Amino acid sequence: MNFSLLVLFLLPANNEKGHWGFWAHKRITRLAIYRLPVEMKVFYKKYMDYLSDNAVNPDKRRYAVVGEAERHFIDLDVYGDSALAVLPKHWQAAVQKIGEDSLRKHGIVPWHVQAAASQLIAAFKDKNISRILRVSADIGHYIADAHVPLHTTRNYNGQLTGQEGIHGFWESRLPELFAEGYDMWLGPVIYRKDIAHDIWKAVADSHAAMDSVLLLEKQLTEGFRADKKYGFELRNNVLTRMHSREFSEKYHRMLAGQVERRMRASVQMVGDIWYTCWIDAGQPDLGVLAKTGCGQPEQNPEAAEQQNWLQRLLDVRPEPEN
Q1: Residue 206 pLDDT grade (very low, low, confident, very high; cuts 50, 70, 90)
Q2: Which of 25, 96, 193, 290 is deepest in the core (most CB within 10 A)?
Q3: How far lies 148's CA from each of 84, 208, 314, in Å?
Q4: Residue 295 DSSP one-character state
Q5: DSSP element (H, E) containing 125
Q6: What pLDDT digit, counting tens, does each position of 60-105 carry?
Q7: Cα–Cα distance, 118 to 125 (Å, whole number)
Q8: 299 and 50 in contact (C-beta within 8 Å)?
Q9: 219: enclosing H helix or E strand
């Protein structure tokens, strides 16, 4: 009991609201499923609830599984202004040039998406239902995280510029308020012939938007009454301090569709990568798997990974508050 209380005390507030927010990750996953061809949709729709619910598992594992935290981001500014030009696009080349410890310290999301794609191809080839679903949910999460501008900088929560809380504001508060009005019709999936190129392009696009995320929030704050920037809302029966609706609406307008564009790009790439991995695996008959599969897959897929709660709790980059 005492140990449990200690863990709960040390965990950051709103730890379920990082990296696009739980609501947004689930929505991205569900929308990606509807883009799939019928040969895949028959399987993915059967397990839609499972995939949606487990799309947030990587965030839940950040404080429990060694090596999980660095899969969600990459601090490009650590590598200088030419980071996107000088960083090797494939993992082994990057390890040889920079070293694995340094890479992991500053985030590995574009390399890990490539590794996860290889895992999904293998799962399709093996026709392993549990593994297909687990890796599909995981890779969807990492792809979506790569589309968040603040996942590409050391100033990930505005802590270096006096803008603490902007992380959860951009990726949780804004989508929850406004995503119902987004145009998310993207058409059918396409085959991605170069996953490495495309995930790095997503990271580059996110990083290009990062300055606007910070600059526009600072400009709005400077001209906004301090007592109007935040308000209180009832969340899960708890009165929670949040960015006010008025401030959120003005910031969302200043961003001029940025959040919608990044969410659309996330949905597009998640569906495309699932489809690409299925094609590269030889297009196994998922209809048969949908018929033979029964129940829900196991809920503890990371049993093979080493866990060290307190070590990760103290070393992992903290989740930004919503």
Answers
A1: very high
A2: 25
A3: 16, 11, 24
A4: S
A5: helix 109-126
A6: 998 889 999 999 999 999 999 999 999 999 999 999 999 999 999 9
A7: 11
A8: no
A9: helix 195-222
